[in-house]
Amino acid sequence: MNRIPQDDENDAVPAHTMSLTGSVLVATPRLEDEIFGRSVCLVLEHVPDHSVGVVLNRPFALDVAPLWQELTSGLSKTASPPPHLHFGGPVSGPVVAIHDRESLAEAGNGNGVYLAAQVENLKKLVLIPPEHYRLFVGHAAWRSGQLEQEIRDGYWYPLPADPELIFGDDYDMWQKAMRRVGNFMMQSVVGLSGLPRNPSDN
Q1: CA-angle at 55, arms to 19 and 162, nearest 5°
Q2: Of 132, 134, 99, 96, which Cα lies nearest the Cα of 113?
Q3: What is the pLDDT of residues 109-166, one digit of tens each?
Q4: Residue 156 DSSP SS3
């Protein structure tokens, strides 16, 4: 990832005027898809000829033990393994980690969201408590212009990256993201700085 927009820089990330790299994509209710419906995605790369991201809120049913054994091989100590892997998308590729440790960042920004894919960095990440990182198998990919068109068609709403959302609970991540979408949309219409939280969402 390149630099991720900060929350106070943009209410929402314009889909056509800047790179979406590092932004969050929230699937709108219009996107009725088995994989991407009600999903929240982190865009890892957005360049003219393609885009790549990972779905953040799809816990994987795969057993974490084989990967954990591989990552901890040769280490003298380890922290507890994560409760599950995450399904990053339908395209196969290397295991990647989204984490909050700048010292192990291969890409990211200073706002607490970073990427690691190199084995040496993954082996260091598994020494810290699992709430500080997530491991992803697979990724999502869009061809040139496809992501921009899907946004224009109303399937995605882009938001600035927020560690609180990205490292939050999988099961209510989409609802929280949609609440932020509503806040941003209301701000753009009436200039409010935010909306009161619905007590029923607690």
Answers
A1: 60
A2: 99
A3: 667 899 999 999 999 999 999 889 999 999 999 999 999 999 999 999 999 888 999 9
A4: strand
Q: How far apart are CA 59 and CA 106, in angstroms?
A: 24
Tell me the DSSP string of 20-55.
Answer: -TT-EEEE-TT---TTTTT-EEEEEEEETTEEEEEE
Structure tokens belonging to residue 67 = 């990967």
Indicate if the pLDDT at residue 17 is higher than 60.
no
92 token code pair: 């196969």
| Chain segment 75-115, per-residue pLDDT in tens | 877 778 888 899 999 999 899 999 999 999 998 866 789 99
Buried b (16+ CB within 10 A) or exposed e, 61-86: eeebeebbeebbeeeeeeeebbebbb
DSSP H helices, 73-169, are: 119-125, 146-152, 163-166
What the chain holds in terms of domains, given with CATH numbers, is 24-201 (3.40.1740.10)
Task: State the DSSP string of 120-143.
Answer: HHHHHHTTS-GGGEEEEESBEEEE
Instruction: Say which amino acid occupies 169.
Output: D
